[in-house]
Q: What sequence folds into this?
């Protein structure tokens, strides 16, 4: 068996270091994901707890009732205007952000798990970013529900 040259040994050592660094990078990415997930979980619990402290009746809501409540009272024109005021954005920008979030959610549901796991090259990322930047966001407001709740609530706090 022939002896490996010094150059071949350096290549092997470099390849080993690359594999170690890739494993280290993967570990760091997993740790970051855990930190992000924990922060999101904390944020969701804290914010939902705040809502429950203001509106204790929501504690007993089913998931469907809670979703209906949020859709009717937060994603209406008064809620959108409040979001725009708080964030310093225009109402149209808030509607566009909501539509973008809905589109992202729809896309996540339609991508099979194997396809989602494929890697994207830097060129593909650049092309996707350029295409997204060229598209104008949909600024149409979401359709409002035509059903009236039994006890409508005035956005300023009292009953209508």
A:
């Amino acid at each position: 068996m022939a002896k490996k040259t010094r150059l071949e040994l350096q290549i092997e050592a470099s390849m080993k270091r690359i594999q170690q660094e890739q494993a280290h990078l993967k570990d760091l990415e997993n740790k970051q994901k855990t930190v992000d997930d924990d922060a999101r979980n904390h944020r969701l619990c804290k914010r939902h707890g705040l809502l429950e402290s203001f509106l204790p009746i929501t504690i007993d809501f089913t998931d469907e009732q809670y979703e209906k409540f949020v859709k009717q009272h937060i994603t209406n024109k008064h809620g959108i205007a409040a979001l725009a005021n708080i964030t310093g954005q225009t109402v149209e920008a808030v509607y566009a952000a909501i539509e973008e979030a809905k589109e992202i959610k729809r896309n996540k549901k339609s991508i099979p798990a194997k396809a989602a796991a494929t890697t994207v090259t830097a060129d593909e990322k650049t092309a996707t970013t350029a295409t997204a930047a060229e598209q104008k966001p949909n600024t149409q407001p979401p359709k409002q529900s035509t059903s009236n709740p039994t006890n409508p609530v005035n956005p300023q706090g009292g009953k209508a």
In short: Residues 30 and 36 are 10 Å apart (CA to CA).
